[in-house]
Amino acid sequence: MSSIKDKTVLITGGASGIGKLMGVKLLEQGAKKLIIWDIDEQNLKQTVSGLKEKGYDVHSYIVDIADTSQVIETAKKVKAEAGKIDILINNAGVVVGKEFYKHTHKDIDFVMSINSNAMMHITLEFLPDMIERGSGHIVNVSSAAGYAANPKMSVYVASKWAALGWSESLRIELEKLGKDLHVTTVTPYYINTGMFEGVKSTVFLPILEPENVVESIIKAIKKNKLFVRKPFLIKLTPLVKGILPTRAFDWFTGRFLGVYKSMDGFVGRQGKSNE
What pLDDT, on the 0 to 100 scale, is given for residue 241? Predict the structure, then answer.
């Protein structure tokens, strides 16, 4: 069991969406210090101001996590100003929702750098301290898209597959050390934060509410769970994909569940795409 009380937590993309909500809930449950990384200066100021008014110890840093040099320099500032991190939540993410041939090279670099590369660079900055003291918890927010392909989000899918594979490898490595080190990988379906505005859902795969996802992530931290997979059908995806022939899986996922048409009406969050 991992305790949240008196812990120092760092959340990327913590000024909006589930990142913001997680920060609030963790402070309410006894976290000693919250560190928020975000690129959106306005949202960051508003979020921090509201939390400090309630008496919470909150530190904020404007950082573009796609820039590795910024990640390294900001990590140094965090260690000097706020101390060591107990719980690291790699939450920030972006999406470009269109057919692959319509992407630019910049789109590809943008999505891959934030959704997969950044969480590795960020973790690399804080993990050695966790290993040295023999405790720490890392939460990596991937996606259900890490299990199944989907039209109009090919690069997003690629980034989340990468994040999922790395997170699992990291978990196994840390378990071999025999210390109080834990990794939780989060693979939710679409979440109602505005990031995927316009997507279509079905009764079998409903769009998730942020409060429900955050509650599950916090429970997973406390219980050292390996995965948060939501909704229930996502838990079955690896098994179903492994059993069914590819065309049968395409029919089940694409036609029956409607996943392959889910992005047809995608518009996204106006001008912003942080998770």
Answer: 94
189 assigned to active site: no
**Is residue 228 within 8 Å of 117, Cβ to Cβ?**
no
Both tokens of 16, joined, read: 């909006």
- 248 CB-near residues (< 8 Å, 6+ apart): none
pLDDT at 154: 97
Q: Is the model's pLDDT at 233 over the cut of 50?
A: yes
Q: 211-217: long-range contacts (C-beta < 8 A, 24 or more apart)?
A: 211/21, 213/18, 213/186, 213/188, 214/18, 214/21, 214/22, 214/25, 215/25, 217/18, 217/22, 217/89, 217/139, 217/184, 217/186
**Per-residue model confidence (pLDDT) at position 202:** 85
Query: What values do phi and psi take at 88, rounded to 5?
Result: -110, 125
153 contacts 263 by C-beta, under 8 angstroms: yes
The Cβ of residue 193 has, within 10 Å, a number of other Cβ atoms equal to 21
Tokens of 234: 């996502």
Q: Tell me the angle at which helices 17-28 and 41-53 cross, rounded to the nearest 10 degrees.
A: 20
**Which residue, among 144, 114, 112, has the nearest Cα to 274 in the 3D structure?**
114
Averaged pLDDT for residues 195-223: 94
Q: Record the tokens describing residue 40, joined without a space.
A: 């959106």
Q: What is the pLDDT of residue 273?
A: 43
Domains and CATH numbers, the chain: 8-261 (3.40.50.720)
Q: Name the catalytic one among 56, 156, 189, 190.
A: 156
pLDDT tier at 269 (50, 70, 90 boundaries)? confident
- Rounded to whole angstroms, how far apart are CA atoms 50 and 65? 24
Distance CA 181, CA 52 (A): 30
Decide if 202 contacts 258 (C-beta within 8 A).
Answer: yes
